[in-house]
Amino acid sequence: LRFLDKIAIFEVGSVFHPQKDKKLPDEPQRLSLLLSGLRDSKSWLDSGEENYNFFDLKGVIESFIKNLHLDGVEWKKSRDLPFHPGRSVEIMLNEKILGFAGELHPKIRKSFEIPEQPVCIAELNLDMLIELVVQDYQMEFISNYSPIFEDLSIVVDSALPVDVVTPFILE
């Protein structure tokens, strides 16, 4: 953020939760999102001085969930750190926590010397999303070979003229 006007990124990866009485931690998959900086690129037509905010992030998440054909998402106020109070939500799906979204708390932003602008972050439970995706919308395997709908070979005498064979092919 010190070198760019805007940043809009995502990352998929594991988080590590220690488990009692287990040597290895639980490693659920998460989808993280970050938006910060200018909403539009600077242009001679427009000043482009508006920064991304919480509602831009919420719109991205809503669009993502809609394209996954998931229904029943609820947005509940949250006051948990690292989020700014009043600018954060807990995302619920089927009465389970799907994730969190909001603007980074100004004190945390300052401690990392991030420029004074909203930094919008979200973390979604990817394992839960994959489990809930409607089966009717699953992708199918795409073959490496082009489809052949009909393959027909006819052997005829080479002395036979084409105009005699053509009517039979067109039937």
Question: Quick recap of the structure?
Answer:
With 171 residues, the protein is of the alpha+beta class. It is built from 4 helices and 6 strands, in the order ββαβββαβαα.
Beta strands, count:
6
In which order are the strands of the major sheet placed? 1-2-6-5-4-3
> What structural class should be given to the helix and strand makeup?
alpha+beta
Radius of gyration: 27 Å
Low-confidence parts: none
How would you describe the shape? Answer: elongated
Distance between the termini: 68 Å
**Oligomerization state:** single chain
Order of helices and strands: EEHEEEHEHH
Sketch the major β-sheet: 6 strands, antiparallel
Q: How would you portray this structure in words?
A:
This protein has 171 residues and is α+β, with helices and mostly antiparallel strands. It has helices at 54-67, 106-111, 126-132, 162-170, and strands at residues 6-14, 29-37, 73-77, 83-93, 96-104, 119-125. A 6-stranded antiparallel sheet has the order 1-2-6-5-4-3. It is elongated. The mean pLDDT is 86.
Furnish the topology, listing elements before pairings:
Elements: E1 6-14, E2 29-37, H1 54-67, E3 73-77, E4 83-93, E5 96-104, H2 106-111, E6 119-125, H3 126-132, H4 162-170
Antiparallel strand pairs: 1-2, 2-6, 3-4, 4-5, 5-6
Descriptive keywords:
single chain; 171 residues; alpha+beta; six-stranded antiparallel beta sheet
